[in-house]
Amino acid sequence: MPQADLFDDLDAGGVYCGVDEAGRGPLAGPVVAAAVILDPGRRIAALNDSKKLSERRREALFDEIRERARGWAIAEASVAEIDSLNILHASMLAMRRAVLALIEQGHPIDRAHVDGNRCPELPVIGHARVGGDASDPAIAAASILAKVSRDRQIVTLDSEYPQYGLARHKGYPTAAHLAALAEHGPSPIHRQSFAPVRRAMR
Predict the structure, then answer these.
(1) pTM of the model
(2) Is the pLDDT of residue 58 over 90?
């Protein structure tokens, strides 16, 4: 993916961060977002949408991005916030928190490129980019940080709630996860606002 235009657009100049989230579809766990400012002088090979990369490649890139990026931040919205706000607004909240964390670190940002068709409320100019995780290197980097961070968190939660098989499906509504929900009922980390979880409540 080209990285020559990280700090320069024909439409807008200045420094930008890429923003993406992971975890909108699962039935359990938080939604996690990341914001990344890449450094044109420290290229990162093979950046791509996290969903198109193997787990092993994502793990390697996770460390490389944190080492080579000019700035990065990871934030989340909790299960309680997802149930209170709905998943869309919770995703927007997580992305806003990630961008604000970058700014609080002292990074000057002129705009944010956000994957998807809408932007969270931000103190900088926001550009929504549908399919941005496959076309914008900074968004791709953010998608990798968000995905790996969330997956690691879910694997940790698997040790607390082993009956659901979270380490295998990462909270997504697989047949095995739905069967475990039907057998054991929801746990405190399940999203009660999601229909399959509501149906399993006792």
Answers:
(1) 0.92
(2) yes
